[in-house]
Amino acid sequence: MSTGGFKNRVFSGAQPSGNMHLGNYLGAFRNWVLLQEEYECLYCVVDMHAITQWQDPADLAASTREAAAAYIASGVDPKVSILYNQSQVAAHAELAWIFNCVARLGWLNRMTQFKDKAGKNSEQVSTGLFVYPNLMAADILLYKATHVPVGEDQKQHLELTRDIAQKFNHDFECDIFPDVQPIIQGEGTRIMSLRDGLKKMSKSDPSHYSRINLNDDTDTLMKKIRKAKTDAELLPATAKELAGRPEAQNLVSIFAALAGQTSDQVCTSFEGKGFGDFKKALTEIIVDKVAPITEEMLKLQADPSYIDEILRFGAERARAIAEPILNEVKQVVGYIR
Ligand code: AQP
Asked: Model's pTM, two decimal places?
């Protein structure tokens, strides 16, 4: 298969910053599994991105293994897809430096995720956090990936990747990099916090009740759904009528994503019911889908050396693709090799 002369190839990743959650699963991992059949896929644990914000070194290693375990437990097959951690492939850093010199300051200044993460503290955050999108562009373009499955929250960064690829091709009068396409699939592309329907479900949210972690036991999970914020109204007949009810909208959307339905179908099934009934059904479906993943993750994490071996094997395969592409880039840039 080819896209404008480029092999159809998928790149995606998640940061090992602890607390892999239902949003990561619905917005990313489960879609990655489906893509394995159609594309050559690289699924990376982006530990270099993780350290843009402080990570305790001991926790980073454990979180990297947890992320790899979450990918595999969700159905990523490390014999089929290339599963590795970013820092084992130095070419990511080399290409990111070149992209630091291609991307414009004004482009990065417009990144809303930086503004969200830096908050009022932007003078004190690491410079790595600011140039994070350039490293993300390098992650993707290092493999000439043509497609990137992303949650809604990553759309702006992917646009920047496309801008960097175009500017590089233009400035160096070449066509090394493809036009990368996002793959944003179905329900579940933006799961919100269980405590605040206007905030994304996120690993770094200080409230444990804001998210369903993939390693939550069943009791914890049930408690979190019970405590999930709702409103006093009943469920309406259509998803449109959920407008202005962000928490209700979010719970319906989680149900829909897990049941393989649309939010409209879920509303039809629960029309006129209160959240007591709905939460019971929601808990059931979450336990049904998440418990087997949790179990498999725990099994994998009990053998860290097995996970490390998988990551090393994946890194070897990733380097084999990356090195000739990086060499091509270096030649175009004018480095003596
Ligand atoms: N809430 C979400 N809904 C849908 N998809 C989501 N993703 C993350 N949160 C949601 C998708 O998961 C993949 C990996 O994301 P990430 O962990 O690398 O980065 P992130 O988006 O910064 O995730 P968090 O949880 O918000 O992490 P912290 O708190 O550490 O910054 C991506 O495809 C993302 O879209």
From this structure: 0.94
